[in-house]
Amino acid sequence: MDVMLLVKAAVMGLVEGFTEFLPISSTGHLILAGSLLNFTGASAKVFEIAIQTGAMFAVVWEYRERLARTVSGITHDPVAQRFARNVLIAFIPAVVLGLSFGKAIKEKLFHPVPVAMAFIVGGLIILWVEARHRRRYGARDQAGDRHARVQTVDDMTAMDALKVGFIQCLALVPGTSRSGSTIIGGLLLGFSRKAAAEFSFYLGIPTLMGAGAYSVWKERAALSMADAPMFIVGLIFAFVSALICIRWLIRYVSSHDFTVFAWYRIVFGAIVLLTAYTGWVEWAA
After folding, report:
1. What is this structure's pTM?
2. Distance between CA atoms of 281 and 267, rounded to whole angstroms?
């Protein structure tokens, strides 16, 4: 057993869990962290996708009561049926576009410099959306509670779900952030901050678990039982750190906006570009 490999897996799991649900791009951070740790190659790329499942198990655990009610009421409860329908509708665009363009995107854009550029562009978009939100609702109405058209996930229509689903597809570009695109997209569509964050959590369950299962199956020839400890460690650390992050984020959005994450993206992206341009850091492909 390679202890150093397990340490790298643990670090990658922490990076995944702490960044998956924040609008700062977990995929982008995993690519950059993998480059710094020299954690690259075919199995590493599958690992980066697979450990997202650990983060999704954190959502399942945190919202287990809501999910259990949905499953038990799927045949007779209109609220449960609408919720399940909306998650399914929002999930479909990512499946279609991901299967159609995922391979080309990975070949061209899964590299540190494109990720850094996406960090900066995404940060600027968040600043614009937050400025728009303040103009419309007032700086003191951070949660959007008094004005939100969609106050909770149960207020969503099928069209709302479809729009969020297409917005989520922007995250096929690494560095964009799946959570960021769905949460900020939700704000643009008139969601409250809590509704936007929670629907992003729920939508991540089929999206990322499906992507992880598909990636492992597709690349199964490149994996072996010797890789199992690495995957187990990564999944565990991703689960624990994601659970901490989810609970913190729900408290945070009740009284704060996402501006701090925008500036983080811009500064971090600029540092990566600067170090790549000057050669201070040898970013691996």
Report:
1. 0.85
2. 16
